[in-house]
Each structure stands twice: as C-alpha cells, then as structure tokens.
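In full, the data:

***
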Amino acid sequence: MRYDFLRRALAAAALLASLAAAASAGAAERTVHIGFQKYGTLVLLKGRGTLEEKLKPLGYDVQWAEFPGGPQLLEALNVGAVDFGSTGETPPIFAQAAGAPLVYVAHEPPAPKGEAILVPKDSPIRSVAELKGRKVALNKGSNVHYLLVRALEDAGLAYGDIQPVFLAPADARAAFESGAVDAWVIWDPFQAAAEVTSEAREIRNGEGLVPNHQFYLGTKSFVAENKSAVEALLAAIAETDAWVAANTQAAADTLSPSVGIPADILKVALDRQSYGAKPLDEETARTQQKIADTFHALGLIPAAIKVEDALHHPQP
C-alpha cells in the first residue's frame, strides 16, 4: 500500500512538473523580433516596457534590435531577422522593389519638419538651387532620399545635378562636420542634434514637399499568422503615442539614457514628430505610389511596383 501511495505521489509530481513546463513554454510560444531606430514611437515603446506586458499573456516575448536607418531595418525584415518595425516613407519602396515580403500595417500623421537639408553654419549655400554640383550626404533609400529629389525638383534642378554621397547617419555626420560634403539630408533626432550641437543651418525641410510619414511594417507571414500580437502592438503604439504627445519633456528624459542623446535635443525632435497611428488610407497609399513611380522613373529601383500589393487589410 505504501508503494502504491508513493507511486501515485511520484506520478502526480511528474504530472505537475509536466504541466508547469507546458505552462512555462506556453508563456513564450513565440518571440516577436522588432526593429527600431533612434527615433519614432517604437524606441519609446521599448523604453517604457509596456509591449512586453501586453504580449506575455498571449504567449509572446519580445526581442528588440536597433538599426541606423530604415533600409538596414528592412533588409533584416527581408531575411526574416525582424518581424515588425517602423521606417520612413522611402525604405518600404526600395524593399518592396527588392522583393521583401512586407506589408504596411499602419502609419503616423505627417511630420514634414522632422527631416531637412542641412549645411554647415558658415556655408555660403543659402538655397537648394545652390547645391548644383555639390556633394550631398544621405542614407540611400531612406525617407530623406525622396525629400532630396523633391527639393531639387522644386528648385529647378535634376537629381543628376548634385553628387549624392551615400552614408549612414554616423558616417554622414562625420563627413558633414569635416567638410567632406557640402550638405546633409537627415531626419530627427540626428537633424536636431546637428542643429543644436554644431549649429547646422537648415535650407529646406519637408514642408510643402513631402509628408514624412512614419510607417509600421511587418512580414506578410507574421502579420497573417499573429493577429492577436499585431493588435497588441498597435494598441501599445497608440498608448505610447498618446503619452508622448502629452508629455514630450518626460518622454525626452526617459528616452535620453537609452539612445545616448541629450534630453534637450530629443525634446526638439519629439516636438516635430506626429502622433496618432492609424491604418493606411487611400491618400497615403497614393502618396507612397507617387514615391515609387518617381524612383522608378529615376532608375533608382529596378522595376515598377504597386504599393497596393503590400497593404494590410485586417480581417474582421
């Protein structure tokens, strides 16, 4: 009898251990890999830790990866290293043209002041027209690539009238401050940092030229197969947007240690950002299509694309 009792006790213990292990495994059945940059809502969402709270009950944990720009982030998405991330307007165009399996999930309202063409404070250049023949640094395929194209067009110049120098933000800033390039097309918070620390002078921002949307994108497979996680992500983004819009100084103070940028600079950038993520509407999709058509006409992407093919249509 004692043997039977011991056997039943051991069996019960084994069952409890098995259930505990299953519960533990169920608590993190899937890891969501999120790409972020030193700007935008996702880096603030990472800092606040609220996404993990929303995803854990659904059986997900989160891994974050930082990228210097949107093109690099979407390269990671293309090879499956990232499930979800945010970029400006142009990177998804280049990525879709390269065959990346991406879908647009949502976007923030326009923030045209959050990107600009800068020149050194002592530069003789006073207008975009004076960039003719000059070296202009930018991150190829980033949101500012389209700003440069539109600004040149607006000033009566062709893209071929300037010498583009393709550099990631850190290298571009070094080239800009050393005088190796004449101008730098850049986005916040790098834009704000250059304006504050080196007194870089803006000759044109996106106002009247480009909307400068921030897009949230995911792989087609992740978005299709993880509806609850996507809904939780968008809910967390909406909460963070609302908090930052009402507390930009607190957001800057919170974000500063994690990104290594002083809070006063971040406050400038956050004040120029827009808040209120929502699904893509027809006007935004048309704007993206115009960007795609422009880059195809310039020979900067290899084939024409249809942005419509990459739009996410949530199922009820």
Remarks:
- Residues 1-27 have pLDDT under 50 and may be disordered.
